[in-house]
Design goal:
The chain folds into three domains: about 90 residues, no CATH class; about 60 residues, OB fold (Dihydrolipoamide Acetyltransferase, E2P) (Beta Barrel), CATH 2.40.50.140; about 50 residues, no CATH class. By secondary structure, the chain is α+β, with helices and mostly antiparallel strands. Helices cover about 40% and strands about 20% of the residues.
């Protein structure tokens, strides 16, 4: 099965009526930390996809409970063909990260996880318009047939903000210590809100938005009336 087919099967189960309340709680949690998109936002579709991926692969209730994917496998895993069940189990090994594009070749994109520091080869047969060496993006890398592929949601950060973002990553890694691990998800939520502000407030200087010396925990304001 392709990633799209696996995702469609999993989403159909995860968004059915018995699990609607769970989905709504996951949505409120996700957008509460990252800012809620509206249909007029250019990144609306990507952000909605990212929320659904969070619900499928990261959301736990309670915090130490199973993911939605784990619940799906628990309920229907034994009814699936063995190779299909294995493909779903492999999706649990996905990686959600801030990555830097290192090299773009036909069918392959090499990226570096800026927090872990390791390079990864991503199989990508689609032509990703505008993607270039040095770009920073929030992405989810999915294991499929022994390869890594991009999920349906990735969020670009402005190239002009690259230096400030990488400097903050370096600071967070240093603060965590040699054997520690920085908290990646809260930082990705901050970057999401910053990218939102760049998208919605074109008259605000980018340097003012990507200022990590100020408290960035406030929610992204709703767009004003048009």
């Amino acid at each position: 099965m392709t990633l799209a087919e696996l995702n469609e099967r999993l989403l159909a189960w995860a968004t059915a009526a018995p699990r609607q309340a769970r989905l709504l709680r996951a949505r409120a949690d996700h957008f509460g930390r990252r800012g809620e998109p509206h249909e007029e936002d250019g990144s609306f579709e990507l952000r909605m996809n990212a929320m659904l991926e969070f619900y499928l692969f990261d959301w736990r209730e309670p915090s130490d409970g199973p993911t939605t994917l784990a619940l799906f496998l628990e309920e229907v895993g034994e009814t699936l063909p063995p190779e299909e069940a294995e493909a779903f189990r492999a999706l649990a090994g996905n990686r959600h990260a801030l990555v830097e594009v290192r090299k773009v070749e036909p069918g392959t994109i090499r990226v570096r996880d800026v927090f872990r520091g390791d390079d990864l080869e991503v199989t990508e047969r689609r032509q990703v318009a505008g993607l270039a060496r040095g770009d920073l993006l929030e992405a989810r890398l999915m294991p499929l047939d022994g390869h890594l592929v991009f999920s349906g949601a990735f969020l670009w950060q402005p190239r002009e903000a690259r230096k400030a973002i990488l400097a903050e990553v370096k600071k967070l890694r240093r603060a965590a210590g040699k054997d520690g691990a920085p908290e990646v998800e809260p930082f990705l939520a901050v970057l999401s809100r910053m990218a939102f502000k760049v998208e919605r407030y074109r008259n605000v200087r980018l340097e003012s938005i990507y200022d990590f010396t100020v408290d960035q925990r406030s929610l992204t304001p709703r767009p004003g009336p048009r």
